[in-house]
Amino acid sequence: MRTKAIQFLSLIGLIVFSNTNIQAQKNAKEPLMIAEQGSFAVGGTVLKSPGTFNPQKPTAEGQTFRGDHAYVFYQIPVKARKYPLVMWHGIGQFSKTWETTPDGREGFQNIFLRRNFPVYIMDQPRRGNAGRSTVASTIEPTPDEQNWFNVFRVGMWPKYYEGVQFAKDSATLNQYFRSMTPNIGTIDIKVNVDAASALFKKIGAGVLVTHSHSGGMGWLTAIKNQNVKGIVSYEPGSGFVFPEGELPKPIASSAGALEASSVSKEDFIKLTNIPIIIYYGDNIPEKYSENSGADGWRARLQMARLWRDAVNKYGGDVTVVHLPEIGLKGNTHFPFSDLNNIQVADLMSQWLKAKKLD
Amino acid sequence: MRTKAIQFLSLIGLIVFSNTNIQAQKNAKEPLMIAEQGSFAVGGTVLKSPGTFNPQKPTAEGQTFRGDHAYVFYQIPVKARKYPLVMWHGIGQFSKTWETTPDGREGFQNIFLRRNFPVYIMDQPRRGNAGRSTVASTIEPTPDEQNWFNVFRVGMWPKYYEGVQFAKDSATLNQYFRSMTPNIGTIDIKVNVDAASALFKKIGAGVLVTHSHSGGMGWLTAIKNQNVKGIVSYEPGSGFVFPEGELPKPIASSAGALEASSVSKEDFIKLTNIPIIIYYGDNIPEKYSENSGADGWRARLQMARLWRDAVNKYGGDVTVVHLPEIGLKGNTHFPFSDLNNIQVADLMSQWLKAKKLD
């Protein structure tokens, strides 16, 4: 009798085990179950021309112009987790940052939808689908791709870094360079932060995921809006804010000096209320290097550590992770779309879980 | 015995019937089952600056610039139908045209995903997320919204048309106006048609869904690429192509004269190989009107009918539907996002079915 019971239990065990395996294998190809998806504009301002609108001979007179809003595309999966992820691109980029990778794999948009997070992807004001700018601009097609190849640490043009987590075929490079789009008008930090804050006002509590140039604007968004419950920042590039009177010296690099900026002590303290994690990739020189594309990141990583120490000194919870130090090698400026982006996403998932943000 | 059998069958019948009802009611709220989704750039060109790239002091010298591609976001539902729908925005617009409606309902993107069509939404070169333009441009924020309100036939600013299929709250109007984004550089018909054709080369056979300004470019795309198996065109605004020597006279309107353009007889004949349907909405004057916003559409509807007759004369299959004539009243220039857009989608579904394109 007992023997039979044991045989029976083992059988159950086998079934469960094999099912688990099948799940693991199928996972990447399972359909995305989207409970809701859509898009909207948020924030922004309205210009008005004096005079009276003449419908027969329309001029600007008496007409309005809405601009400087952010554009957001969102997807909410079934069985959604509590906090949505708001993903904010970096310099010269737009929503594509988080979508299909240059070599055609799934980016953070799909990866975190599969992990049941609502995903909101933002085009900041005057960028991509949020192109209606309240300021005039002239845009020149200026060849710049070889420089981005270096600055984004894919390699030293035309050489790829050894072991870089980036596919080396020309189709990938073509998609990579076409993932950029110009700013329509000057980049206005306040305009961008206001729009990001308006988004958090609309959707409520969530986690902000920033990249590069949006890193600094992310700190300001969290200061402005308490609905930002945590920040995951990939390679923040500038805008490290310190309390007035406590700014570190500029950090020299062959890409130029990196300066910190200041906020009031009162505002700075707000950054101690939420968990923040910062990730940097590989191929960042340890000492001053004439490779200005890479050397700028040495300065930024150094500044990020000073900033971590400053926030934590006041009781904050900031972690800086230099990926090679924990065994993830070859990451570029875009770890979330690199060849090992599943591992990069796993690190983020573990942190969100540890901070009870999932 | 027989009685019991009959009772049993009736019972089955009842169950099936009630299930069908529940399905019908739940449908709008069922999750979208997405087998695959992503984005990519397609088409475009590459500029190269002479000289040698200097990584230390980077200038344009020796660098490249990729631009004039289209950007595409696609979703393929489970149990997908044979032909994907490629949706192409109109003047001043971008992918938003097909996404969430200004009043927050589902647009054609979701509606046709629910009907199991793969949906590819395109931003044409130099627009929205495809902003990397190979030509320079200066963009001025020019107040223009009251004029668009009239031209898009929402009403005669500030009055809405009686019975217009457009929500009258200010939040809707705000989203509506923020759904526009400027062109970055001149609108280049050939550049746009080349990119659209490159998309059909990549994805294979499909159905093109155009709006307004993309209408004319849609005919040219079908002439260029045989993978366009049918066209659904909402309110095509210009670019009606006729065989050389067979152009109709320009049609006068208070918005200016509408002229046809010409293609070779050989190219024109290609338009007779696919089914094409054209829809126009309501509030288009029947005779010359001083309301130039609306009167332009009288000329375009008239030109569309001349074009239909020309294509059909050579054995084509073009249908022009003036929605009020079949009982759909109050539609604006954007029937696919109007309040009755489900009915508008039903008409499209019926046509696709009739033409064996579903």
Automatic annotation (TrEMBL), chains A, B:
The keyword Transcription regulation does not apply. InterPro entries: AB_hydrolase_fold (IPR029058), Carboxylesterase_BioH (IPR050228). Signal peptide: none annotated. One of its GO terms (molecular function) is hydrolase activity. Keywords: Hydrolase. The keyword DNA-binding does not apply. This is Alpha/beta hydrolase.
